């Protein structure tokens, strides 16, 4: 990717335009039953120190044993990011002292990660598409948690998270605005959820991002970056980048220079502040973990995982556009969440896909948003909505009646076709019955007949009257056709 | 009773099986011997109640015609092995009163096979040392003394307590560990047999780590046969240690006494060093002659990178140790010295908890892994390691079955005699043994003679990976020729 291909949102400063350059390190908790190197549970919310094995507590003589499912999850993720899978990778120790790091080192992958370069295609709201390069993905252990509010002078340590598997997904510095950054994380999370390799729950800390931000004059070399640590909300990521870019521009425009440092975002004040400078940075003394052999993967294992990958959002979108004739916008909306896409596919199966898409995007999503519900807890099931689409498709009900029917399904439930029958909601297509109504209208309103003959648009009055007389159930098409022939238009 | 402690492990086993002897009697004799030998400081924890109980259980099993290969045999356990419910300290102040809730794989296999635990033996703190003088519990005295002298001598290290316990006939065998020579050097100093098996032969799970890529457990015993019997129980695959090889363990005892006819024995010229004491030269030549007359073929070989082994070892081992010992931080277990804040607590705890030698190695290790020094030290040392390994591989590929070398450059020395001013003086003890750890090969030390002052000297045999059997066959030839070396009791 070169800079020209990436649409940039330049920021206007006092002395001209600035370009913000962003790279991200996303820490995604691997979906697995047990930890990366121990059999302890990864379950969230247990009593403090209830999910801690001897290995997690770093008792003397304990040794790590790799959890193969975590490795498979990392490989799946790599494949989902269209990345190179390294058949040989190495676990290293990152050494530093901290009370919630029992071993005194984190087992991570430094020089030889399990996954190499890949990419994520990101759709922006204005229809633009940008590709963000992936530098690498590696597996590492999470740390425990220090709790400082339990005792006046002591801190407590909860090791439940200690040793839980994380994937660190490092992007290239390909991101050029807060909007890109937010869209990137959203898309990455969507891919992880499709793959089932991370639940993407940012509130629980399953997905966290370190954001590297620098600014430069367009076309110039990269500026000095600051790293904003541990962001756990997409919205905050956007806010932090906006703030940080402005802060850096102001410093440079005032004749200052950016110090390379680690910063934290304070959501309450909407600003970033310094956590530690480059000089205070740790020397982690990385070296290969001698307790673990290099991780060797067989090509057949990778091939098997690849063959079993689910369809991912990009492929699904292409299929919805190519095979089902949806617009790129609609398809993009439907595939953003796997649950929505699955719902849509059930609705659309064997039915009018465009109509199904309209209903899922407009009626259903609109209603779900209004009520603050996820699609998984929608009161109207995909089968029920499919029934509605079918009734519209075979002209049993009109679009207007369908909305009434949807309302009944939402509040009362039931079988759409049964409801239409029992509540007399079916469209009248019986030409004899409609003909009778029209004959009656023509006979009683000769003045309107003359008007319609002079100006065919006036025929719409008859259409409205006929529909009204049928209680909305007459087929508008049938009414139109009959009127035209009876009025000689 | 005393005579029961002069039995070899194999003899005791056979008499127990024939019910000529009970484990209770045998164990009681050893408990008494341990108590009487306290001046040696070989044990840091005696467990007579546990031993008595285990012996009773063994006798019950033997009575029912059951029992494992080590049924009723009293052993001593190096304090580096975690023992469930029994204090384990690695002889460091920082693990004061640490009582594991788990049993190391190696010791659990010994108990599975019926062995009886007499107690925990002294060692250099975290196995860092070659004289057992760095132990928080104080130095061990060798059961050996120079003829006509009362100067206390070191038993070697780091498995000095185990070596002394076996040599003084306080147990029928002992577990030990070897990172750079910690089994073979004390064996040579005390006239006992010690084998460091191939890296990956014994599980490291539950053994307090010193340098993970070098540490191996092994037995120390009175005879080659005894060592073979013990190793069979100690070795074997373990899913809890991924560096432990998934290879079946042969019946090592069957290799003892097997003909060595036609075996090609390499004599590496780089082990012939300037200023080597003539006695060492002499027993080496003697060993060559014995093997030759047993039908082995001697060939001169070259291991050109030998001279780099010791410096490279003193980069790799401290590097790993500096990281392995980071867990002793006063937070979860062991010693905690309060401080102003968390960093101060770490510093106070580790300063007080670790002895000089451990602190020195943690500092060396931290230094060689630091940004800017990593490539020059650690990476280079790893390259040297690859070359050392290749030296051996080339000899083995050329048809050499094993190599014969001296085990140590000198006999045992006096307590406090070495390393006071210059730690390298002490490090040189391991000059013949570290290469074997660096290459991950099996090595055995077997007594082969005495020096002019009557102190035992040992020879080392180095084998192909996972071919400990050949080492047992060859070392038994030397043992048969040289005879056994038993210390005169002075304690």
Structure description:
The complex is a heterodimer of chains A (489) and B (491). Chain A is of the alpha+beta class. Chain A has 3 domains: 3-304, no CATH class; 311-422, no CATH class; 431-487, Arc Repressor Mutant, subunit A, CATH 1.10.10. Chain A is built from 15 helices and 16 strands. Chain A has helices at 68-80, 178-195, 234-253, 299-307, 313-322, 328-335, 338-348, 353-371, 382-393, 399-411, 416-422, 431-444, 446-454, 459-469, 476-487, and strands spanning 11-13, 16-29, 88-89, 92-95, 105-108, 118-123, 129-141, 145-147, 156-158, 165-171, 207-216, 226-231, 261-266, 271-277, 287-288, 295-296. In chain A, the strands form 4 sheets. In chain A, strands 1, 2, 6, 7, 10, 11, 12, 13 and 14 form a 9-stranded mixed beta sheet that branches. A 3-stranded antiparallel beta sheet of chain A has the order 5-4-15, with no helix packed on it. In chain A, helix 7 (338-348) runs parallel beside helix 9. The longest helix of chain A is centred in the middle third of the chain and has 20 residues, at 234-253. Chain A is elongated, with a radius of gyration of 30 Å. The termini of chain A are far apart. Chain B is α/β, with parallel strands linked by helices. Among the domains of chain B are: 2-249 and 469-482, Amidase signature (AS) domain (Amidase signature (AS) enzymes), CATH 3.90.1300.10; 307-378, no CATH class. In chain B, 37% of the residues lie in helices and 13% in strands. Chain B has 16 helices and 11 strands. Chain B has helices at 9-17, 23-36, 48-63, 105-112, 160-167, 184-190, 224-234, 252-255, 278-293, 309-324, 342-353, 356-368, 375-397, 423-427, 434-439, 468-482; strands at residues 43-46, 74-78, 116-121, 173-178, 193-196, 216-221, 264-268, 297-301, 402-406, 443-450, 456-463. Chain B has an 8-stranded mixed beta sheet with strand order 4-6-5-10-11-9-7-8, sandwiched between helices. A 3-stranded mixed beta sheet of chain B has the order 1-3-2, sandwiched between helices. In chain B, a hairpin with a 5-residue loop joins strand 10 (443-450) and strand 11 (456-463). The longest helix of chain B is centred in the C-terminal third of the chain and has 23 residues, at 375-397. Chain B is globular. Chain B starts with 8 loop residues before the first helix and ends in a 9-residue tail after the last helix. The interface between A and B is large, with 30 and 43 residues.
